[in-house]
């Protein structure tokens, strides 16, 4: 008769198998760009602007340019018809008078390379505002993803300074903002940046040197603050849209005073200003066509499996995973801390940890610069990462894994195990092999890239098809994305290794953020490796050999240990995974025994 323990684990594994989705790439990718400020390959978007930088060439506020572009993209939304909004159509609308300005072109070029399959160009535009506002001292605007891009111009309708108040009120109303929202939104926009003589020479007179554009700021600072309001109210404002000689162009004056200063009087309190701006700017960024469903707000994950995949490197079958933890700024990691990964074999007599778990220490520990994202910086946190490279026996493989963080100071270790479910390795039949894949640059200015993508399938499997979906929406000049499906062919020039056979395909791309989804069909089952990156191991990413493996006996369930729920500090637990699973299943088993007997 199998042991009680085996039965429990068997039960447990059955219950885990259905409807399980891990990882959650859409959320993970949005979370990484928001809280790490950068692409997966390390190129940082936030640092183009943070900390509240001025552009070297023009001395204009980069954050102001980013915010203005987001407003102009969203302003053509028609809330009744459910059309327009933040959909990146602005990229095709810059020839319009209403969208005049060098800052608009520079912003689009800042943003060009940060979109991908899970982050639309419109999401990047929205993120730009989130970064800029946080970076310049404003609130952290809650961020949702899921905007859908269009690849052509939409209808016009961005407000212009010469229009009268009823026109502006109607345009804001069409977008879904009432008069109070309008006053608030304009003030929250016009706290950053200013008006330029090159763009509006009738508002800001040109310089004696016509090559330099004069910028007259809306208020006396570059910071996101309510000076735009207090200076208007105390009469010291130099806001060009309030003070310009030609009264027709005083659009801010008309809007600011349209309710007898009632809204502005409330916003003289800084906290009120920050809160109100967060609300209206969030609504502005979430102005989308009616066919778009945005994601839930993207919250910071205090403990995150930042990347994980099975692959083959130098002929060895390995599992690579990065575990990311937060650390308060100004504190250091305890030198006595050890962070271990634990995992279960997938096959064999020890499958699903029937006898023991395997464990290993991280291959490397790295700490991020606290300034990588102004959002995380404002939360007072930075990231530390533990990179693991595990040697995996092809015949045993890996089914699930979890982490143990032991501060080494006598406090009990914490277990990060996805609330006792463990992080499940969805499949081990199809692998992506970045270490054998490559890219060649050619064409004019290296803008054409030819990729050789290599995948591997278990030698004992008979796939009916191996193919990839390639996607890149980070195209030069916001051209339509690459979005193609290609069959992969058996590649006999690569000898079998680690119990796998190799397949490859070649493709051309002119964008900068190609990702591939690999697929294979084996016995009618589809196996997928989603959102694989195409920057490859080279001089910049040194090869890390796999670490040594230990074996850990999983403690038997102890009646004194009680189940603990996740906390906001990363959902850690203070008892190891299997004992807690066993504990949770104990009542079930007792019930089953009672029925059986
Ligand atoms: C009636 C509505 C509005 C009018 C007529 C208007 C007009 C203008 C004008 C004429 C400029 C100068 C642009 C340049 O010189 O290149 C400007 C700049 C700016 N606007 Fe507005 N605006 C309006 C509403 C808004 C709103 C709602 C926001 C955002 C929430 C916003 C954000 C900005 C920002 C950040 C700048 C500075 C850009 C920079 O310095 O590069 N505006 N606006
Ligand atoms: C004021 O600006 C409006 C709109 O641009 C223009 O039509 C008008 O001629 C200007 N008035 C003067 C006196 O320059
Ligand atoms: C609003 O404030 C401005 C600037 O202080 C002032 O000139 C104006 O008279 C005020 N309007 C009302 C209706 O109080
Ligand atoms: C974790 O599990 C506990 C109890 O099993 C549950 O109350 C809690 O909501 C779970 N948390 C998450 C994030 O799933
Ligand atoms: C965690 O487990 C739940 C099921 O309990 C699953 O839905 C979720 O996707 C898992 N998340 C991760 C990150 O493994
Ligand atoms: C096999 O893969 C290599 C990349 O490792 C590639 O250079 C080569 O062209 C591929 N051969 C075939 C026949 O696809
Ligand atoms: C290639 O680069 C040169 C110099 O950097 C530039 O003048 C030229 O316009 C570029 N060509 C293309 C096609 O981008
Ligand atoms: C890419 O192509 C697939 C299949 O044709 C389609 O369903 C999907 O909407 C396309 N994605 C984009 C962003 O165009
Ligand atoms: C990629 O482009 C080059 C140059 O135009 C061409 O010779 C080659 O056949 C293309 N490769 C693929 C896979 O389309």
TrEMBL record:
<keyword id="KW-0479">Metal-binding</keyword>
<keyword id="KW-0575">Peroxidase</keyword>
<keyword id="KW-0349">Heme</keyword>
<dbReference type="GO" id="GO:0020037">
    <property type="term" value="F:heme binding"/>
</dbReference>
<feature type="domain" description="Plant heme peroxidase family profile">
    <location>
        <begin position="50"/>
        <end position="284"/>
    </location>
</feature>
<protein>
    <recommendedName>
        <fullName>Peroxidase</fullName>
        <ecNumber>1.11.1.-</ecNumber>
    </recommendedName>
</protein>
<comment type="similarity">
    <text>Belongs to the peroxidase family.</text>
</comment>
<keyword id="KW-0560">Oxidoreductase</keyword>
<dbReference type="GO" id="GO:0004601">
    <property type="term" value="F:peroxidase activity"/>
</dbReference>
<dbReference type="GO" id="GO:0034599">
    <property type="term" value="P:cellular response to oxidative stress"/>
</dbReference>
<feature type="signal peptide">
    <location>
        <begin position="1"/>
        <end position="19"/>
    </location>
</feature>
<dbReference type="InterPro" id="IPR002016">
    <property type="entry name" value="Haem_peroxidase"/>
</dbReference>
<dbReference type="GO" id="GO:0000302">
    <property type="term" value="P:response to reactive oxygen species"/>
</dbReference>
<keyword id="KW-0732">Signal</keyword>
<dbReference type="GO" id="GO:0046872">
    <property type="term" value="F:metal ion binding"/>
</dbReference>
<keyword id="KW-0408">Iron</keyword>
<dbReference type="Pfam" id="PF00141">
    <property type="entry name" value="peroxidase"/>
</dbReference>
<dbReference type="InterPro" id="IPR010255">
    <property type="entry name" value="Haem_peroxidase_sf"/>
</dbReference>
<dbReference type="InterPro" id="IPR044831">
    <property type="entry name" value="Ccp1-like"/>
</dbReference>
<dbReference type="GO" id="GO:0042744">
    <property type="term" value="P:hydrogen peroxide catabolic process"/>
</dbReference>
